[in-house]
């Protein structure tokens, strides 16, 4: 009997020891294990804030069409922009039909009908748009990427028509079952009646009056190289340091590499041997990219999904653009410069896995040392400045933006007109 009791006690002690060892190694359920694999990263504290994809899925601008060739523009974070977009998020869109883009005179519709137009520039995958708008799943439409949404009232049959434009530029989809009334559209368009008038010329909107923006001087700080190393390498202590002739620094663990350009406060991280997770999926890739940035640097300010492009080699490029703006005027994109990579966070993915990551080490800290309302030129003054470009390429887009520069006081954001050309370059009009 005593031997049986001893055996039972010994067995219980062994089991308790095994359970205790498990918790020592893996901690409590839901927490990070002590033992990590080489594919894991260490999350660095005290860096940027975490965010979600939904907060980055918004139009670059909302154009209001008032009929008789009258228009105006609302920019992100302005009161009427937020009101219109929040209302549209609550409406349902269903019953999609596809048409060839060239079958309809779109400029005529914009000029003569009352309506509104949400612009997404390079485009947003429908599967992501469904996360912020009530778009009923449809196999005809779900695989598309949308560059703009046009909503307008017809004059003859008292009907609302809603069109989603493919970013490919050849087809358009009509939501034949849209939860919108003529009164809904008219009421939202009425918000623009007393706003700055714009003229639609060659696909771009020209304000007939100067527009106001806030010139801002922001306090700034920078992430350290040690912070980025700790965040991006499994074991920073085994990384090897290489100094290039151009002054850039490279840290590598023989699999991954981190290039730091101290003179530009910019990093380029690459992981070419990252294990693949499956086929490329634009929607899932964007969500994975957001999660990756959350864990490796975070977000400092307002960002928008600016670009999501696939390539023939299976590489998928995702770009997030930073916006800035306060008060009633709205929020505007910050120009990313070849000599000063500040406003864009770029990730390349292959089959759902991050293979490269680029971002600035600079971030805006709390507080401002300058805040002044300035006016950007409009009307004929702006037209003359556009004509003075004398570029051989056509203008793809004209928009108000911030030009960033570093001063002794900190980061200066100067309001400018930005012009994107068909040759891929961007010109600045002061």
From TrEMBL:
Which CDD domains does the UniProt record give?
YycH_N
Pfam family of this protein, just one? YycH
| Regulatory protein YycH domain span | 3-424
Source organism, top-level taxon: Bacteria
The record's listing under InterPro entries reads: YycH (IPR009996), YycH/YycI_2 (IPR042274)
Tell me the protein's name. Answer: Regulatory protein YycH domain-containing protein
């Amino acid at each position: 009997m005593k031997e049986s009791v001893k055996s039972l006690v010994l067995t219980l002690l062994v089991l308790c020891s095994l359970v205790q060892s498990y918790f020592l190694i893996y901690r409590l359920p839901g927490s990070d294990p002590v033992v990590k694999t080489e594919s894991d990263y260490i999350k660095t504290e005290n860096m940027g804030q975490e965010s979600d994809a939904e907060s980055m899925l918004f139009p670059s601008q909302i154009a209001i069409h008032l009929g008789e060739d009258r228009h105006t523009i609302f920019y992100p974070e302005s009161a009427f922009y937020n009101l219109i977009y929040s209302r549209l998020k609550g409406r349902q869109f269903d019953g999609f039909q596809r048409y060839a883009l060239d079958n309809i005179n779109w400029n005529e519709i914009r000029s003569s009908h009352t309506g509104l137009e949400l612009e997404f520039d390079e485009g947003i995958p429908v599967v992501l748009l469904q996360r912020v708008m009530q778009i009923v799943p449809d196999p005809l439409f779900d695989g598309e990427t949308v560059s703009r949404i046009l909503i307008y009232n017809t004059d003859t049959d008292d009907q609302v028509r809603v069109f989603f434009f493919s970013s490919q530029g050849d087809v358009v989809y009509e939501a034949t079952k849209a939860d919108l009334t003529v009164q809904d559209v008219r009421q939202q368009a009425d918000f623009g009646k007393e706003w700055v008038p714009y003229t639609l010329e060659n696909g771009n909107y020209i304000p007939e009056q100067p527009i106001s923006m806030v010139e801002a001087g922001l306090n700034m700080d920078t992430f350290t190289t040690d912070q980025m190393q700790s965040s991006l390498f499994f074991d920073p202590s085994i990384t090897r340091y290489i100094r290039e002739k151009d002054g850039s620094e490279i840290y590598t663990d023989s699999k991954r590499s981190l290039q730091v350009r101290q003179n530009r406060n910019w990093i380029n991280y690459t992981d070419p041997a990252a294990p693949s997770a499956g086929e490329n999926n634009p929607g899932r890739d964007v969500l994975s990219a957001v999660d990756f940035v959350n864990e490796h640097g975070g977000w400092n300010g307002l960002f928008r999904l600016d670009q999501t492009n696939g390539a023939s080699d299976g590489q998928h490029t995702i770009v997030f653009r930073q916006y800035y703006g306060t008060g009633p005027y709205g929020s505007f994109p910050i120009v990313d410069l070849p000599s000063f990579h500040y406003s864009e966070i770029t990730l390349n993915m292959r089959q759902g896995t991050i293979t490269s990551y680029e971002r600035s080490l600079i971030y805006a800290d709390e507080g401002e040392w300058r805040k002044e309302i300035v006016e950007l030129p409009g009307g004929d003054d702006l037209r003359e400045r556009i004509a003075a470009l004398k570029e051989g390429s056509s203008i793809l887009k004209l928009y108000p933006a911030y030009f960033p520069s570093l001063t002794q006081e900190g980061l200066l954001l100067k309001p400018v007109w930005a012009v994107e050309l068909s040759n891929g370059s961007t010109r600045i009009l002061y």
